[in-house]
Amino acid sequence: MKDFDHLMSVWQGQPKQDQFSVDEALKQAKKGVRGIKNQLYWGIVAMIAVLVLTFVITFFFVFQWLTYLGLFIMLFTMVLYAAMIIRNYRILNRHDATRNPADYLQDLKEYQRNRTKISGWFFYIYLLLISLGLSLYFIEILQNASPFYKGSVYTITIAWFLFLTFWYKKRIFKNEEEKLNLIIDRLERLQGQFE
């Protein structure tokens, strides 16, 4: 009988698995995704503004052919990046978490895979092409500038690209990935409760 009592006390002493409140989990997931969607939205707005500005410079000013090549490279690269941002925004905006959480979870995983691609190889290609386009653009624009001014512009531009590559990219993508992992983990645990 002592063994049975001991077994019962051990059984009852086991920590209970914490159950997620469905409403709370969905509310937190919506809030997290809303924050990511807002970042994407403002990224789309900024990219469209820069695209319009580059388009105006390209088609309303007269340059040499090398400068046009640089501007077209930048336009092409920005259009590709804007298309990827819009696609990711649409993936997140496609489903509502409260209607079908399983589809919503799949969409979040698809978004995470797409975002991983962007943070991987595409970001570096984007930065390389923008750098090439700016370099070609600066050849004519800075042609008559003083050496000090040329050096300053190139130094600031290179410093900006290095900042984006080695500090900003890691921080932004890591922060977003942590948020996504937390949201996906909560939704998977919630889904596991009902299986």
Could you give a short description of this structure?
With about 200 residues, this protein is mainly α.
Write the layout of secondary structure elements.
Blueprint: H1 2-13, H2 22-60, H3 65-93, H4 101-141, H5 147-193
Helix pairs in contact: 2-3, 2-5, 3-4, 4-5
Salient structural properties:
transmembrane helix, 195 residues, transmembrane
Task: Describe the main β-sheet briefly.
Answer: none
Share of helix, binned: over 70%
Order of helices and strands: HHHHH
- Low-pLDDT runs of 5+ residues are none
Structural class: mainly alpha
What is the gyration radius calculated from CA atoms? 25 Å
Mean pLDDT metric: 80
Outline: elongated
Distance between the termini: 36 Å
Figure out the total of helices. Answer: 5
Strand content: under 5%
Count the E strands: 0
Structurally, the number of domains stands at 1
Keywords: Membrane, Transmembrane, Transmembrane helix
Transmembrane segments: 40-62, 68-86, 121-139, 151-168
What does this structure look like?
Keywords: Membrane, Transmembrane, Transmembrane helix. The chain crosses the membrane at residues 40-62, 68-86, 121-139, 151-168. By secondary structure, the chain is mostly helical. It has one domain (21-190). 86% of the residues lie in helices and 0% in strands. It has five helices and no strands. The protein is elongated. The two termini are 36 Å apart. 12% of the residues are buried. The mean pLDDT is 80.
